[in-house]
Design a protein that fits this description.
Shape: globular
Structural class: mainly beta
Number of strands: 31
Number of domains: 3
Largest sheet: 13 strands, antiparallel
Radius of gyration: 23 Å
Number of helices: 0
Strand content: over 45%
Distance between the termini: 26 Å
Length: 359
């Protein structure tokens, strides 16, 4: 059964924005949040921010000149210098802008920022030389100075923001500033997207989507991810511009390279405004005899895909059996785990055990 979801032509921020966003006039007064202070109760807005760090070391901060001001962050700072490192910030309510100090930068470095919102992000460079930005990506060019103060803007607001790095250069110190703007709304495409689906066929992934109407729709960008938060562009498809009748689109990914892949569409209109569709997961192309379990980590359900499934058993981390069933003819078996506590579980399919993480 096809599930319909609709995006209307409008971008709204429904709540009042707190007058605390960092600007050139007030950034010097903003608190540089020390790492030891997380979870941190902000003074600029009624919000608390928590930080979850994966593989990011710390380093004594340095200062650099922003115009006439000598500016430094809290010390020690996060030292983002590896492609597998992540800084994830979670807010107690949606935030439409947040500001980072990035210093000690090399010309080869690229920073990637994503959020839990489908809205497209933009970057305001408050004080920098030689940096460029597209969407939520910040690149230090050949003439980049020692550092930059950047504000991440999100018209719809989000409670989660994640920063990653391309792993090149010597690494950069990162400090978050206490000057958050609150807001919640919706970032909505100038199209009505009836469906978006994907499936594996003959060692490729076929993606299909359809629109009921379009207004000023320039093109779609197809993006792929192996973990649902780091994305790469794999192609573009021209939009219909303006249309009041259904339009059908397709795209083929000829090189699926992971057990489970995630896809989304970035729709861009003639004015350059863009937003993202929902994320779909696709069981990548494996031999029919193989059994695939996805998604992992999982939130609501586990899907078991394959042939010759004879038995399924789910146990918790202590070995207690939670689910058992003999399966002989089913494909795409779905197990509801929405009521389970977060943690580690073990799923035995036939004679193979899969470690499952419930988020």
């Amino acid at each position: 059964m096809k599930v319909k979801f609709t995006f209307l032509f409008l971008t709204l921020c429904l709540s009042v924005v707190i007058q605390a966003q960092c600007t050139m006039a007030n950034y010097m007064a903003a608190v540089r949040i020390p790492i030891a202070s997380y979870p941190y109760a902000a003074t600029s807005a009624a919000v608390t921010v928590s930080a979850a760090i994966v593989g990011v070391p710390t380093l004594g901060n340095s200062s650099y000149n922003c115009g006439p001001d000598l500016y430094g962050g809290a010390s020690p700072a996060w030292w983002l210098n590896g492609a597998t490192q992540t800084i994830t910030l979670t807010f107690s309510q949606p935030v439409t802008s947040l500001t980072f100090l990035i210093n000690g930068t090399n010309a080869t470095e690229v920073f990637y920022i994503v959020s839990s919102s489908t809205c497209g992000l933009s970057i305001s460079n408050l004080c920098s030389v030689g940096f460029t930005s597209v969407g939520g990506t910040v690149t230090a060019g050949p003439t980049a100075g020692l550092g930059s103060i950047i504000t991440v803007n999100n018209p719809g607001g989000a409670t989660m923001y994640r920063m990653t790095h391309n792993g090149l250069g010597a690494g950069s110190r990162v400090t978050l500033l206490d000057c958050f703007a609150l807001g919640s709304g919706s970032c909505i495409l100038p199209i009505e997207l009836m469906e978006f689906s994907g499936k594996c066929k003959n060692d490729i992934v076929d993606l299909e989507w359809a629109t009921a109407m379009e207004r000023n729709n320039s093109y779609f960008t197809v993006e792929r991810s192996m973990n649902s938060y780091e994305w790469e562009e794999i192609g573009t498809v021209k939009g219909a511009g303006n249309s009041a009748s259904p339009k059908y689109y397709s795209f083929t990914d000829p090189k699926p390279n992971n057990d489970v892949l995630y896809y989304r569409l970035r729709q861009t209109d003639y004015n350059g405004e863009f937003a993202n569709s929902k994320i779909i997961s696709v069981n990548a192309c494996k031999r029919a005899s193989e059994i695939i379990v996805y998604p992992n980590p999982a939130t609501n359900e586990i899907i078991i895909d394959g042939e010759n499934i004879e038995s399924v058993q789910l146990n918790d981390a202590y070995g207690s059996e939670l689910f058992r069933k003999g399966i002989f003819t089913y494909n795409d078996l779905k197990i509801d785990i929405s009521s389970l506590e977060k943690g580690i579980y073990f799923l035995r399919v036939n004679d193979k055990i899969h470690k499952i993480v419930k988020e």
